[in-house]
Amino acid sequence: MSLLKVSAPPHISTKNDTNVIMLDVIIALMPALIVGLLFLGTEQCLLLQLVRFLLYWLNICGQS
After folding, report:
1. How far, in Å, CA of 24 to CA of 56, rounded?
2. Quick one: pLDDT band at residue 7, thresholds 50, 70, 90?
3. How many angstroms separate the first and last alpha carbons of the chain?
4. pTM of the model
5. Strands (E), the chain
6. Residue 7: CB partners within 8 Å, gap ≥ 6?
7. Cα 31 from Cα 29, distance rounded (Å)
8. Is 20's pLDDT higher than 80?
9. How many domains, in total, are found in the chain?
């Protein structure tokens, strides 16, 4: 009997682990961050991140 191998979707076999994939995601989001900072400025971006964090925190606290 062969054992099943559980892997992340889309089930492509590579040597990349989750840390490498998440680093690729961060690198891919850098242009969006730069454009956001250029168009909105640092204060508005920090405010948006604060609101996002608070909504996330309220969602986590509300699930208990």
Report:
1. 23
2. low
3. 41
4. 0.51
5. none
6. 13
7. 6
8. yes
9. 1
For residue 13, is it within any domain?
Answer: no
Alpha carbons 7 and 34: distance in angstroms, whole number: 33
CA distance 8 to 17: 10
Is 8 domain-assigned?
no
- CB of 47 closer than 8 Å to CB of 37: no
- Name the CA dihedral angle for 37, 43, 46, 48, rounded to a multiple of 10 degrees: -90
Three-class DSSP category at 33: helix
Q: Give me 52's structure tokens.
A: 């996002």
Domain presence at residue 11: no
**How far apart, in whole angstroms, are the C-alpha atoms of residue 57 and residue 63?**
10
- Any idea how long the chain is? 64
Structure tokens at 40: 């909105």
Amino acid letter at 15? K
